[in-house]
Amino acid sequence: MTPLLQVTHLTRRFGGYTALADVSCDVAAGTIHALIGPNGAGKTTLFNIVSGVLRPTTGTLVYEGRDYTGTRADQVFAMGVARNFQQVRLFKGLSIVENVMIGCHARMGGLVRDLANLALPKPATEIAARRRALEMLELVGMGSRTTGLPQELTLVDQRRLEIARALASTPKLLLLDEPAAGMNPTEVRELAELVRRIVALGITVLLVEHHMRFVMAIADTITVLSAGRIIAQGPPDVIQKDQGVITAYLGPAP
Amino acid sequence: MLGGYWDSVAIFVGINVLMGVSLYIPMAAGLISLGQGGFMAIGAYTSAVLTKEGFSLALALPAGAGLAALAGLIVGAPALRVRGIYLMILTLGFGEIVRVFFLNFEPTGGATGLGGIPPLSQLHWVVLACAVVIFIAWRLRGARLGRAMIAIHEDDVAAEAMGIRLVTVKLFAFAVGAGIAGVAGVFYAHQALYIDANQFDFSRSALTFLYVVLGGPANPLGPVVGAVLVTLLPEFLRVVADWRMTFFGALLVAFAIWRPDGLLPAPRFK
Known about the structure:
Number of strands of chain A: 10
Strand content of chain B: under 5%
Largest sheet of chain B: none
Strand content of chain A: 15-25%
Number of strands of chain B: 0
Radius of gyration of chain B: 18 Å
Helix content of chain B: over 70%
Number of helices of chain A: 10
Distance between the termini of chain B: 39 Å
Largest interface: A-B, 39 and 31 residues
Radius of gyration of chain A: 19 Å
Order of helices and strands of chain B: HHHHHHHHHHHH
Oligomer: heterodimer
Order of helices and strands of chain A: EEEHEEHEHHHHEHEHEEHH
Distance between the termini of chain A: 44 Å
Number of domains of chain B: 1
Mean pLDDT of chain A: 93
Shape of chain A: globular
Mean pLDDT of chain B: 93
Strand order of the largest sheet of chain A: 6-7-8-3-9-10
Structural class of chain B: mainly alpha
Number of helices of chain B: 12
Low-confidence stretches of chain B: none
């Protein structure tokens, strides 16, 4: 079976600095694929490239067998690749539900539909998007927290809200950048539950995370990046014993 | 309706309300324009030339609005590459270009201006136009496009990553705003009956900016309140009339410090 996402020989330079050097990795459909590595390893850069926010210097991106290198972020999103942000980026001028409804934006018709909707008291697309948004809030465990503004939420709920916003578009691939950051052990357990529920819906998850217990518990495959290069790839039990990975994290043995 | 003088005041209030909304819409998407006077001029001159030739206002109005909106698209396209202060400078430049163009364009009177425009701006049409644009601005706030505009305003990187096509939404906001400024220009020309390029100078654009900032840039009714206040205050307060620009300048500074969201705060939408 062809992988859902294929990253091939990806390199990204910022001026003289090489953030990613010849990175290749496949993400199989229906799995939880984790991306780990020390700070500055290039994990977020890889995320930004896969989601179309950044372009690679060289290399190709293939999604469902189709080359989409250089595609704009909104088109990548429309293909079914949704993401959250490591530094939460919610829209402060929109309510909690409206933030999630933004995730439905691309599926709500075009300009002509918009203009016709201005004259209707309760447009059908609007009702459908709101219903979908409320379902997504329920899914991430925020069913009781749907009114108000995003900045009134705790950081943990803001992260959940970002996941709901990404899920509203019914993606096939969900990119989660450090979803467990700032969470206590109970919240991390709940997050693991949520990620499993998301995968059960048929969504593939690619996640960047520093919380090792969380990663080892839920990931099917782990890719380890260090200084822009892949140093190991495989299932959690193999990665845990990999000498190169241990060295990258802890330094060389004395 | 209200009798000569007050009828005329009401029409000018309505024209300024239209100008306020014309800037509110692009500003909702984070696009600050200091060139709304330029779009107003295009609407005014286009319609005046047509009605002087004997065409009806029913034709001159969409023509003026359409040409202004088209100008909005043309200015908007390069404007998408710049943001913040650079966009302000770009639109300011555009407003000046339009002014200088009409100042030198002989077929529309050049520096002498264009007179003999038929008095076709009736209060009820102005009121209707205001009602329509306020309705549109209000409905947009709770609609897909309006949400997308706010999202772009707040964080365009996140907005694009959430599937919003920036170009479409920004150009829409800019062109609709320009079109509404064009409508304001049409009514202005047929109320003033004489227009020249300097009536659409920077101070016109700056006053428009004032309506939105004072009234509340995050509330669809903000520019309406702002425009009504700024237009009527000098009518009722002699002191304000004498010190007009000084007074409004001071007001702008005071608002920037104590009420940055304007008179009307953002409406709480669920």
